[in-house]
Design goal:
about 325 residues, alpha/beta, Arc Repressor Mutant, subunit A, 2 domains, five-stranded mixed beta sheet, three-stranded antiparallel beta sheet, 14 strands
Length: about 325
């Protein structure tokens, strides 16, 4: 876990406070995503602070008047209280044009396709693999515009995903059945209670498919809770930008601007993603299927809203350890 397992929650929050103040002193203005990149993703391990604790540290600094914020382009931008307004405006003038470009709807759609295409290329490296989901015009034009996606089916036999929901890819395994693969090429870390994760689990319950999540960063608690439910998780540690946006990627990665140092250009799978898709996924799916079946009742209750996340996480962990699921109040469960 980032921040070091030997440190208490409060100690990690204090580290977060210090690092936020240090970064803002040198950077003047930063968004939450930049602070996460510099504190949660980077730095020596004892100095890393998970995003949920970093958020608490930042909220406290704002509440105490140590840090101020302004909302621009749909995001909050933080700076040391008392910073001259012209200095704040100058720094925002440098960063906002980049942020607006990477927040534009068309760019975000092409950004999502970059990771999906990398997954498609990885799966396609083994001709014997059976999967649904493809792009129909990859050879017809560059990634400066969207490719046409052929979606996996929303129904298998009598099973159907409500609202015609689709996976990014539907993978077929000889003994473990189907697996639903979702790609999230986004900045936020994937926590187990995020809407994107809940939506993947919901679709998998309805279509009886083992859940597979591929994302830039996945929080420890997601592994800790969802591994027991047969969910397979892969961190890419990179955000893929389209080749057509190479210049924008360089600006986004500039440590004096947004500081997204993990941006990588292109839609080719790296060695880690290839290994996950071609080796780990097929070998892990049979055991994952067994865990998925053993916890499907909890997954269904959580994803359709009958069970709050805290109770879901507590029941999953107690069941995994052979403990009575109603033994203690759920509010006492340590889930992070």
């Amino acid at each position: 876990m980032a921040g070091g397992a030997e440190l208490s929650r409060q100690e990690r929050i204090q580290i977060g406070r210090r690092r936020i103040c240090n970064i803002l002193a040198s950077h003047t203005v930063a968004s939450m995503r930049t602070l996460e990149q510099k504190i949660s993703d980077a730095g020596p391990n004892p100095q890393r602070v998970d995003p949920h604790l970093l958020t608490l540290a930042l909220q406290a600094l704002v509440r105490e008047g140590v840090v101020s914020s302004v909302e621009e382009a749909g995001s909050h931008w933080y700076y040391p209280a008392g910073t001259p307004p012209d200095r704040v405006a100058s720094r925002l003038g440098e960063m906002l044009p980049i942020y607006r470009r990477i927040s534009a709807h068309d760019f975000k759609m092409r950004l999502g396709q970059a990771l999906e295409i990398a997954i498609l290329r990885g799966l396609s490296a083994e001709p014997a693999l059976a999967f649904f989901g493809s792009f129909l015009d990859l050879e017809d034009h560059g990634d400066e515009r969207l490719y046409r996606k052929e979606e996996p089916p929303a129904a298998i036999g009598n099973r159907r995903i409500p609202d015609n929901g689709r996976f990014d890819f539907l993978y077929s395994h000889l003994s473990a059945g189907f697996a639903g693969i979702e790609a999230k090429n986004v900045r936020p870390w994937m926590y187990p209670d995020r809407p994107e994760v809940r939506d993947l689990l919901r679709k998998c319950v309805f279509l009886d498919a083992v859940p597979v999540l591929i994302a830039r960063r996945i929080h420890y608690s997601t592994f800790s809770v969802l591994n027991h439910c047969g969910v397979l998780l892969h961190q890419s540690y990179n955000q893929l930008f389209p080749e057509a946006d190479r210049a924008l990627a360089a600006l986004a990665a500039d440590k004096k601007l947004l500081g997204y140092h993990d941006v990588r250009v292109g839609n080719e799978p790296d060695a880690r993603l290839r290994r996950f898709l071609l080796e780990h996924l097929p070998s892990l799916l049979p055991d994952a299927r067994a865990s998925f079946e053993a916890n499907k009742d909890l997954l269904e209750a959580f994803t359709v809203g009958r069970m709050p996340y805290l109770e879901f996480a507590a029941r999953v962990k107690r069941r995994a350890h052979g403990e009575p699921e109603d033994a203690r109040p759920f509010a006492d469960e340590e889930i992070q």
